[in-house]
Fold this sequence. Notes:
The chain crosses the membrane at residues 260-282. The protein has 4 helices and 24 strands. The chain has helices at 3-6, 14-17, 111-115, 268-284; strands spanning 11-12, 31-33, 37-39, 49-54, 57-61, 67-70, 78-83, 93-96, 99-103, 120-124, 130-138, 148-157, 161-167, 183-187, 192-194, 201-204, 207-209, 215-216, 222-226, 237-242, 245-248, 260-262, 265-267, 297-298.
Amino acid sequence: MLANQNQGPVLRHLSLQFPTDSYTYNELIQFMVGDGLMVLPVVEQGTLAFVAYIPAGAWYHFYSGVFYNLPNIQNVGQYIVFDVPDDYGTLPLLARGGTVIPFHPTPAMTVTATKASGIGLKVFFDFNQSAFGHVQIATDAPLDSQNVTVVNYVADGTLANGAFVSLSATAPKINPALTARVPIELFFPTCVDLAVNATVKITIDGVVDESGEWISNFTCKKFTYLLPLGKDGSTAFILLWSVPTITPIETPTSSDHTGAIVGGVVGGAAGAALISVAVYFLKFRHGGSSEYNEIPMRQEV
């Protein structure tokens, strides 16, 4: 549901997002932000835990990456007990599996300073081993079709092998204003048994990053990679990764898909997704300035 195209709300009741789940109809506290984020407000002072209804599907804690697998049984989810964060500045927030969420890595006291940190990305894979999303980037001029560009994100794979494609018809290749490397955080629903001394091999735009110093938070279900200086969520790039593994501890519901670069073209399932994204741009491409200073968020599944 694109709020700017179909007049739907950005902040929406759960029943708008999950109309076939009758348990969402009477929910008065929780709400969705776009298609990809669920906010779980804490409304009782002094409480240490609270109960929230989570519709069926794959969900992650936005900050910790803890995964919640809620099987779809007759379109009904589950009630789950959550601890209240010790840090009262951390909002209880869930991300829906299958979404790519853009964010500013370094919030600051002013909008200008916040934007200067660039656009980082959190990639939350579903059990189909994929994630999709996009962001609208505008100048400081009035928000209309002449001042907005859209960057689409397509991810495909597992921790062992995968690809992430950031594609824009109008965004620049390099953002020279960035002074620090921007993170892309990847979260997977299936924990894999890592080989001894396993490391992540990264290829960015066809060039192998052999340093390894830009990879952190590496576990059997996630890792963080700092993009090369000048690249962020507003720029076009192709990221590939591979990790030596032994065998999955859990079995995904679908077969593995691996993205690959073949003759300079993205192949595999990621390649098919890239073609569909290119068709999207042919249909919806916006003209306008090449300065990107605002990001009204849009996430789609």
